[in-house]
Every structure is written in C-alpha cells, then in structure tokens.
Design a protein that fits this description.
heterodimer; A: 295 residues; mainly alpha; ABC transporter involved in vitamin B12 uptake, BtuC; 12 helices; B: 258 residues; alpha/beta; Rossmann fold; four-stranded antiparallel beta sheet; globular
Chain lengths: 295, 258
C-alpha cells in the first residue's frame, strides 16, 4: 500500500509505463530496503540493550551509526569506484565505534547507564566533527545529497542495496536467535550469566560483530536513521515481555514496519518535497528516550 | 566433591587469599566466616572458576576446574550471589528458568521438564504464586529467595552462597538455611555459605572456616572454631559464649563490656 501513497493520486489499475517504472524500480526497492533497514536497526538495538543491560542502548545514541557513517563517507570520498566499499567500510566503522564506546563505558565497578550514554555521546560528537571536516572535501552537489543521507534517507535506494541489506538481516537474525537465551541471562547480569553457564566473552563478541554488521549495512544504504533501535524493542517488550527469543524476531518485524511507515510519512508529509526519514524517527524517538531516562 | 589445594588468589601484587586448602565432602555444609575484606567473596568466586588462581589447584570431582567449560561448571555448581537489579521486565518464572540454561542447547527453548523443575523450585521456596510477577517490582528479600530458587532449579550438586540472608527477616533467614540443609541431605549436595551471622553458621553448618586477611585461621566443627580466642583474633572483639538451649551448639554474643 505504501507503494501507492504519493504526491499524486493514482489508481493501481491504470498506470502508464512511466508510472509503472516508478512503482517497480524506485518505490518498491525503497520500501524493501526501508524494511531491511528498520529490521537491522531494531535487531541491533534489541540485542545491544540486553547485552549491555541498558534499555537506552541504541546504535545511533552509542555512536555506532556515526562510526558506520564515517566509514561510509571515507569510502564515498576515497573508494568511489568500488560499489561494496561503502558497506564494508561502514561495518569496520561500526565495529570500531562499538569497541571504543564499550571500552570507555567499562570501569572496574562495571558499567552503569550514565557512563554508557555519556561515552556514546562523546564518540558520537567526536565522529560528527570528523564527518563535518570531511564534508569540506565534497563539492556542493555531493554535499547536499550527503547531508540528506546523513540524516537518514531512503530516496537513493537501489535493488542491490536491498539484496545486501536483506542478507545481513537474515544472517543477523540467525546469529542473534542462536544467542537469544544467553542474552536473557546477560540481561539479568553479566556475572549471573557467567555463573549459570554463558560464555560471556564469546557472546559479547558475537553480539558486537552482528550488530556492527546490521548497523553497517543499514547505514551504508540509508544513512543514520536514529532511534529505531530504541523505540521498536521498547514497544515490543511492552507487548510481549522481555524474553529475547521473542523480542528479537518481533523487533525485526516491527522495525521493518516502523521504518516503512516513517518513510511513507517522510515522502508525503510535505509533498512534493521530501523529508529525511531520520527526521521522522527522531521526532518520535527523542521524547521516548527522555521518558525512559526518567523512569 | 570440591577439593581446594593450596590456592592463592589476587590481583597484581595484592594477594587476597593466601595458601588455602580444604575439601568439601558430598552432603556437607561449610560456612566461611571472617571480617569484612578478609577475602571470603574472592575465595567463593574462585571456586566456580570466575577468578584465576595465582597458585594451587581446585579439583571438581577429581578434575581441574579450568578444564571444564562454563556450561559444565554451571551444571555442577550453582551460585547465590548478591542480587543485580535489572531494568528489564523479567518475570520471576523467566528468572528461575535462566538457571536451566546450562542444561539446554544453543537455540534452546526450555523443555516441559525444565518448566516443572523451575515451578517446583518456586514451590519449595513458598513462591509458587509469584511466578508471573516482575522481578523489578519485588522487595530485596523476595528477590533473594528467588535467587535461591534459581540456584535450586539448576539441580547442581554444589551450592555457593554469598551472604544469602542479608536482606531477609528472621523467618526467611531460617527458611533459607532450612532449604539449603534439606537440599544437602536429600541429594548428597554440598554447600558453601558466606555469612556474618555466627549463630546461624554455628547452628546450620557442619564445618566452619575462619578467614583472616586471606589466611585460614581455623577449620572444623563449630565447637572448635568458634572459640573466644579465635573470634578475638579475627574480629578483635570480646565475645560471650554459651550454648544454644536446644542444639547445644555454641552461641555468640558480643561483650560490650558494660
């Protein structure tokens, strides 16, 4: 249905060739990719929250998305000729950002909510400033599309981007489901998990790698769509409780639906002009973040 | 059976536990007693392989503990530690079921057997009607009993309890010790309990291990270990000793000198 919502009213049954082309070559990849991006970000959010025992952990807030964005941007500037350089560099950027935030947030006394969020803020702003410095290397036309992309933008979707993102979602879901029960224990406490038989280090590495893969491919495809990883798992937990064996698959589904809806709003809200989808998700996510922080 | 051979545990140059050896027989309850900072928790945490040893060995059923996987250790040893508050809405039943992790497979959903074991653990702890309540809405004392229920649900042969009665009222302190005692008697299980309550230790433990700044001062029956001389050395206080009117075990009262 989202395929048909647009700035002009049309009937599905009498489309001309040009309109069909728009529907199948532009709209459809955009929706499919949006669904994958939503699923990826929600999966990454749900698993990072359980792993770090923190309902506020979210790829965008932890700086993971910005790490991926910086990676993508470096690929954009230096390796323009290779199509897959962007997701690969995004994955590397996301992994590095995850590692740095985790190291900063960890202390001898363990990790508390405030420390983690602060570390995320520091890494996010630091990476942002590097991104801004790099944008000075771009010409004006590239700069505009890049700024839009940075805010989370699905308007450049291609079917290849979808295939890659879809593969990441499938791999990510399988790995996370494999660790879902271990995450249930990690959510209670790292020491508890260790005492009751979880290989804590292995689990942490698997979750960090998987979430970096998911965030990396999502960001390479659509920029930093913020707060999806915060909103979606939170609503899913409200609905079905916090067993990760349910939270993970349902977050993927709900994340897909959420981003497709948000992108449809972004497309039609001030039609014929478009908003970046990240603006819509942040509009919903930021108040929820404040609510969760005060809880 | 757990055999501790001459172990030293520490961080860097600081040795927290020094040259300690003891054996925990099947069916035995051992209480570890000592002043704050004596290394009790460090010792307990080393026993399930959480902390690396600087020296010595720990043998679990005749095999060095390092040679077990986490899952294998968790099947044999269960821990009742100070609670860790969770921000997620975890139900009591889910919490207790997490004790069955080591018996499941990777993708694992609990079997009906796991569910039955968990519900039974809640039942013997008098918490059967708590199973659908949320952990973060309970009191500290209620959570402490649930932590015991989770340990019982593992069906491990060895229980390690770190100050399990801190948040508990008198009735629940007694219940905690009674449940541990029953478990040890009914299935040849053994338990190691850290406690500051010398009278509960005296009453319920088969043996008492007295620890002072990482060194074992004494180990044996409560009558031998809980002497005025030993307690003065460890806690630097004067105590009055008499006997429990029913069991005859030593009863300790601090002498404030007035």
């Amino acid at each position: 249905m989202a395929t048909l919502l647009g700035s002009e009213k049309l009937s599905f049954f009498d489309l001309n060739e040009q309109q069909k082309a728009i529907l199948f070559d532009i709209r459809l990849p955009r929706i499919l990719l949006g669904a994958c991006v939503g699923a990826s970000l929600a999966l990454a959010g749900a698993s990072l929250q359980s792993l770090l025992r923190n309902p506020l952990a979210e790829p965008y807030l932890l700086g993971v998305s910005n790490g991926a964005a910086l990676g993508t941007m470096l690929a954009f500037v230096f390796f323009t000729q290779f199509e897959f350089a962007r997701p690969v560099m995004a994955f590397i950027g996301a992994s590095l950002a995850t590692f740095v935030v985790y190291q900063m947030a960890k202390s001898r006394a363990g990790m508390n909510v405030e420390r983690l969020v602060l570390s995320g803020v520091i890494v996010t702003t630091f990476l942002s400033s590097i991104i801004v410095l790099l944008t000075s290397l771009l010409d004006a036309a590239k700069l505009r599309s890049f700024t839009f992309w940075l805010l989370g933008d699905l308007s450049q979707s291609t079917i290849n981007g979808f295939y890659l993102s879809f593969a990441a979602v499938i791999i990510g879901t399988i790995v996370l489901m494999r660790y879902a029960r271990a995450l249930n224990l990690m959510m209670i406490g790292e020491r508890d998990a260790f005492d009751f038989g979880v290989e804590v280090n292995k689990t942490r590495l698997a979750i960090f790698a998987t979430s970096s893969l998911l965030v990396g491919t999502a960001v390479a495809a659509s920029g930093s769509v913020g707060y999806v990883g915060l909103i979606v798992p939170h609503l899913v937990r409200l609905a079905i409780g916090s067993d990760n064996r349910l939270v993970i698959p349902f977050s993927a589904l709900a994340g897909a639906v959420f981003v497709v809806l948000a992108d449809t709003i972004a497309r039609v809200a001030i039609a014929p002009r478009e908003l970046p989808v990240g603006a819509i998700t942040a509009l919903i996510g930021a108040p929820l973040f404040i609510y969760l922080l005060r809880k | 059976m757990l055999k501790v051979q001459n172990i030293t545990i520490g961080y860097g140059v600081c040795k927290v536990v020094k040259d300690t050896s003891f054996t925990l027989q099947n069916g035995e309850i051992l209480a570890i007693v000592g002043a704050n900072g004596a290394g009790k928790t460090t010792l307990l945490r080393a026993l399930n392989g959480t902390l690396p040893l600087m020296k010595g060995e720990i043998l679990l059923d005749g095999k060095i503990i390092k040679d077990y996987s986490r899952r294998e250790i968790a099947q044999k040893i269960a821990v009742v530690a100070q609670e860790n508050e969770t921000k997620f809405p975890v139900t009591v039943l889910e919490f207790v079921l997490s004790g069955r992790f080591a018996h499941g497979t990777g993708f694992g959903w609990e079997t009906s057997g796991d569910l039955q074991i968990a519900e039974n653990a809640l039942k013997i702890c008098d918490l059967a009607n708590y199973k659908n309540r949320l952990m973060n809405q309970l009191s500290g004392g209620e959570r402490q009993i649930i932590i015991l229920a989770r340990a019982l649900a593992t069906q491990a042969k060895i229980l390690l309890l770190d100050e399990p009665t801190t948040n508990l009222d008198l009735a629940h302190q007694a219940m905690m010790f009674r449940l541990v005692r029953e478990r040890c008697q009914s299935c040849e299980c053994s338990a190691i309990i850290i406690t500051h309550d010398l009278n509960l230790a005296s009453e319920f433990a088969d043996e008492i291990l007295l620890l002072k700044t990482g060194k074992m001062i004494a180990k044996g029956k409560s009558e031998e270990v809980l002497s005025a001389v030993n307690l003065r050395e460890v806690f630097d206080v004067e105590v009055l000793l008499d006997a429990h009117p029913k069991s005859g075990k030593p009863r300790i009262t601090v002498d404030f000198g007035n």
